[in-house]
Amino acid sequence: MSEMKKxxxxxxxxxxxxxxxxxxxxxxxINDETKGLAPEERACRIHEKAxxxxxxxxxxxxxDPGANGPREGKRGPGWKPGPQLSPE
Length: 88
Hints:
mainly alpha, 2 strands
């Protein structure tokens, strides 16, 4: 049985319409792959995969996945910073 088929036949999602089943199966698979990873490791994996897709498809994006959000100057008109959270 292929790995994706294992998730597609999960009893918790069997009664879903096919598009929703596929989405849920992918989410289950990603959850299993990243279970137990530290937040930094998880973010690193996501950024690596995003960079590969960006490079593979020649996409032009206005943000750098290795940074903390949009590049300076690339925020839309009317952008205002959100509230700053203070450590508890």
